[in-house]
Predict the structure.
Amino acid sequence: MTDHTTHNEQNNNTKLTAKSSSKIAIIGGGLSGLFTATLLERKFAQHQHQHQHSNLQITLFEKSRGVGRLATRYRSDTTTGKNWQWSFGAQFFTAKTDSFQQFITPWLDSGLVQPWRAQVVNLSIANEEGQPPPIEQKEQWGTEQPRYVSTPKMTSWGRALADQLQQATIQFKTRVAPFAQYSNLQASEPTELFDDNGNSLGQFDWVICTAPNGQAAELMADSGFTNQAKIMQPKMLACYTLMLGWNDESKLPDSLKHSIDSQDIKPWDVAYLRDSILAKIFVEHHKPNHEGLLPSVTMHADNDWSEQQVDQDIDEITAQLLAAAKNALNWTEQTAPSQIDCHRWRYAATSMASNDEGDAQPLGVLVDKEQQWIVSGDWCGRGNIESCYQTAEEVVEVIAATLEV
Ligand SMILES: Cc1cc2nc3c(=O)[nH]c(=O)nc-3n(C[C@H](O)[C@H](O)[C@H](O)COP(=O)(O)OP(=O)(O)OC[C@H]3O[C@@H](n4cnc5c(N)ncnc54)[C@H](O)[C@@H]3O)c2cc1C
């Protein structure tokens, strides 16, 4: 053993408490949970040969059957067997930091993650009946700040991340109960978690909660979590998503075939809307590796509008969104979509809390060192996929510092 190892072991002996071994629970199997598990495994693997903490055990508890707010919906055409497909949650992601760029490199190399060089337009609502909507070029997503998609579906990456985990297991369809509901919480003891039927899920040295903040506040309520008051500082806004499909390209309205200039035969891929309750349109069959799809378009409604209508009847919302979509794309009876679906996201976008100077700042992960609980998630950052990675890095730093990993 090197001197360095001995030094660290001495530090460990003085620092370790009854709770400082390495049984870790992660609540939430979204990207925050999956990135956290992946980075924890990597961190522990790096230092395994130097330390006694070789028995890392991570359990992810996910109440649903799949990975978080990444979502893909299909519908198959019974005559052709071809699919419509909608990524009705996150559409794309950025990788602005070097470390996230490095993290995604193997997935880029394998082609599972691909840049989307989308042609982006501003679309205004047509004033006159039968007139095409005014469309102007906004930008082309390119090399300067690439946007990435996971292929063949947005959920593919989440599944691949889950498959690559070595020491972590995922328990789907397991809803963790609020901490204070069944547990006798003592800071000196490991935390015992329970499901919502009161069944024990095991005892853990660290518990990391990655649920959206409304759900995190419920989980931590009355538990004595030191940062409880901060959980609700960022506001999470709703989003309604409209999914539309057409039977083939010839049935598309002209507005969806519109190319930016006469040289360019390719139509636009992403539109930002003005004067509409719809905020953005994404043309799914234009995404990389999506060419085999039947024409499929996902539309996200404005977050403030969605939040105001969050408890409205979904059929009424669908009718309103459909009217807005018809206004924007100006379809006729012959070019109306044949497939219509709508989804309500209660927790979609993060509106960050402002500091004393009035600037919106990411909250950062919330740590209770005594209990060894961390509350994390995209909403502790800027509310996007890249934030999931950044908050996962923060979590790993906190745990590694305590364990001297
Ligand atoms: C409509 C929409 C559009 C978006 N567009 C983009 C985009 O274009 N680009 C981008 O970067 N980001 C986008 N996002 C944001 C992106 O999807 C999120 O940042 C990211 O998916 C959040 O991941 P997460 O793991 O933090 O949270 P989540 O995905 O919400 O994962 C948390 C998980 O915790 C689980 N959970 C909660 N409570 C419990 C419990 N008690 N027990 C067990 N499990 C529990 C939930 O089921 C959930 O799966 C969009 C989001 C939405 C909804």
